[in-house]
Amino acid sequence: MTGVTTDERSEPAITAAERPMLEGWLDYHRDTLALKCVGLSDAQLREASVPPSQLSLLGLIRHMAEVERQWFRNVMAGEDAKSLYCTDEDEDGDFHPTEADSWEKAGATWRAEVDAAREIAAKHGLDDLSVGRSRKGEQFNLRWIYTHMIEEYARHNGHADLVRERIDGTTGD
């Protein structure tokens, strides 16, 4: 079980300056994904939405751990943090949890990557450029990374809504 039992999300401020606004929305979407997992067993969290799709809530948590790691540690900070779940044999390994995978482990990994992302971001201004580059050789500023992360979570939270409803009928934002 996730251990979280209530909606503890903080609504993003509606009059904040740019950085607190971006951070508020990113945290809101992070909390939303966690909320979609509340009260489910590990087996339910591994349950695929609708065959042939293999999309599951645990897979989404694992995927977002990979995304946090990639954008903040590898791109922004220039680290060489290896993939957590993906391999040459299974490039989408984040989306393929096994019976051995649990909320306890995947959730802790995801939270650790979120913490690392916050630490890295705190060292930079919104206009600071990443060490890592795009396929075209361009650098990203932190503002772009925040905006992209909000988009990534928002898209996958839509998926999480549908997966959760399929599992036990729970709906909501």
Give a description of the structure.
With about 170 residues, the protein is mainly alpha-helical. The chain has helices spanning about 20-35, 40-45, 55-75, 105-120, 140-170; strands spanning about 130-135, 140. The model is unreliable at about 1-5 (pLDDT under 50). Strands 1-2 form a two-stranded antiparallel ribbon. The protein has one domain: Four Helix Bundle (Hemerythrin (Met), subunit A) (Up-down Bundle), CATH 1.20.120.450. Helix 1 (about 20-35) packs parallel to helix 5. The protein is built from five helices and two strands, in the order H-H-H-H-E-E-H.
Task: Explain briefly what this protein structure is.
This protein has 173 residues and is mostly helical.
Overall body shape: globular
SSE order, one letter for each helix or strand: HHHHEEH
Low-pLDDT runs: 1-5
The strand order across the widest sheet is 1-2
What name does CATH use for the topology?
A: Four Helix Bundle (Hemerythrin (Met), subunit A)
**Please, what is the CATH homologous superfamily?**
dinb family like domain
Q: Helical segment tally?
A: 5
Radius of gyration: 16 Å
Mean pLDDT: 94
CATH class: Mainly Alpha
Largest sheet: 2 strands, antiparallel
Between the first and last Cα atoms, what is the distance in angstroms? Answer: 20 Å
Oligomer: single chain
> Which secondary-structure class do the elements indicate?
mainly alpha
- Level-2 CATH architecture: Up-down Bundle
